[in-house]
Amino acid sequence: TERAVAPRLCALAIATLLSGCGMLREKPAQPPSPEPQSAAETAAPAQDNPQARFAAAMALWRANQIGESEKALVALAQDFPEHSGPWTNLGILYAKSNRREQAIGALAKAATLNPSNAVAFNWLGILYREAGDLNRARLAYERALTLDPDYALAHYNLGILLDAHLGQPAAALPHYRAYQRSAAPDELRVLAWIAEIEAKTSPATPAATGSAPAPAAEAGR
User: Fold this and answer.
1) Which end of the chain has fewer CB atoms at under 10 Å, N or C?
2) What is the DSSP string of the chain?
3) pTM assigned to the model
């Protein structure tokens, strides 16, 4: 029988900012640190300072002035095309406003500019999964975890992809455990998923009376 997936996908949205199910949990990615600046460069007008402009764009985002934040990020990406951070955040902004193709394009640009951008690869995994391209989603999550083995949200997302979409709960188990250890030791939902998979994948232990063991109740998801 098909496993109950919808609540788990809502949980995925909470963890990855793509839904109104929850609060923003992942910090916007910062652009690469600039090279050391001379005193004259440090005193340059804000218009010529990418860090100051990026901070202003993020302030607009936090103030829920999303349109103005988008304009600021687009201008920043155009003026400083070598920085990965503005493209990453544009991708997240596009994803949150249901512009998937634009989001994929911006995040792919961010990953090209900075191949160590684990946040961009995690978001690409989310968007590929939404588009039904499960193999590319898996590769993107795995790339994020290669870059940052402790990236809790990438573990969570890959676990759900393997478990709920690819039918590989045993492969999902170490990712659920990694997420639970590093980010949510008391999150009952994830603990229930772990217990359920362990119960279903552990070798059956014959009861002392020889009768079949009672089936474990499936955790609600």
Assistant:
1) N
2) -----HHHHHHHHHHHT-STTS---SPPPPPPPPPP--HHHHTS-GGG-HHHHHHHHHHHHHTT-HHHHHHHHHHHHHH-TT-SHHHHHHHHHHHHTT-HHHHHHHHHHHHHH-TT-HHHHHHHHHHHHHTT-HHHHHHHHHHHHHH-TT-HHHHHHHHHIIIIISS-HHHHHHHHHHHHHHT-TT-HHHHHHHHHHHHHHSPP---TTSPPPPPPPPPP-
3) 0.71
